[in-house]
Amino acid sequence: MNTKPIQEAVSKWFKQTAGGEQRPVLFDIDETYPALRSLDNSYADIRAELDGVLADRSTLPAYHDLDPDQATISNATPNEWKIFYLWAMGERAEPNASKCPKTTALLASIPNVFQAFFSILEPGKSIPEHEGPYCGYLRYHLGLKVPDDAPPSIRVKDEWYTWQENESMLFDDSWSHEVVNNSTGERIVLIVDVLRPMPLPQTIVNKGVALAARYVYGRKVLERAARPAPKPAEAKA
């Protein structure tokens, strides 16, 4: 079932609701989604669970291996963009979630979490300019591991932000954005997508779209995320 035409029509409506071409780019977390601050306040716990995940890097898949629709951005530049899903389309991503119980419990306490994952950029991995496919969510980043040398930056529309460890940002992913990364170290952030705060009619529709995405699209992502990543020799076979 091709749900993209419906998604595009709904997303256009949400963009108009949010202010069209004048809609905000970056958001004040305390004013817009204060529940996300529980993640900032638990940085040490989240970082410790991330370190546990990184202990076995061979299990970490490339983003486009989990979500083939992302290949045009994930596989477009040298080096890898790897993902460790914790939450996908409103559901816990097992067995990953059980490996990070404190982080997952925090996510479960935040209203309307759509998806969440550790986003790992290998040294020098940039992400080309693109727009998020749907205006129904806002995207939160918490810097977990950021190199000191030439720390990577993200451009969202005409706003630039340079990641720092234990610092967060919230932005509209439907604007054009890109990552510029000339660093020799890994950049790792926790990404959390939350449903965009909107008037009641749009909120009801948005929750319906999110629920449909879980069954039409999200379950496939969850199934791929649950499989062990192929080892380098297997990937070449």
Tell me which CATH architecture applies here: Sandwich
Helix content: 25-40%
Strand count: 10
The N- to C-terminal Cα distance equals 32 Å
Number of domains: 1
Topology order in helix (H) and strand (E) letters: HHHHHHEEHHEEEEEEEEHH
The largest beta-sheet arranges its strands as 2-1-3-10-5-8
> Residue ranges: pLDDT <50 for 5 or more in a row?
233-237
For the CA atoms, what is the radius of gyration?
17 Å
CATH-defined superfamily = B-lactam Antibiotic, Isopenicillin N Synthase, Chain
Overall residue-averaged pLDDT value: 91
Largest sheet: 6 strands, antiparallel
Just give the CATH class: Mainly Beta
Q: What is the CATH topology?
A: Jelly Rolls
Q: What is the number of helical segments per DSSP (H or I, 4+ residues)?
A: 10
Can you characterise this structure?
It is a single chain. The protein has 237 residues and is of the alpha+beta class. It has helices at residues 4-18, 29-32, 37-40, 43-54, 63-66, 71-74, 96-99, 101-109, 200-226, 232-236, and strands at residues 81-88, 91-92, 113-121, 127-131, 137-145, 153-156, 159-162, 168-171, 176-180, 187-195. The radius of gyration is 17 Å and the shape is globular. The chain has one domain: B-lactam Antibiotic, Isopenicillin N Synthase, Chain (Jelly Rolls, Sandwich). Helix 1 crosses helix 9 (200-226). Residues 233-237 have low confidence and may be disordered. It contains ten helices and ten strands.
Give a brief rundown of this model:
With 237 residues, the protein is an alpha+beta fold. 37% of the residues lie in helices and 25% in strands.
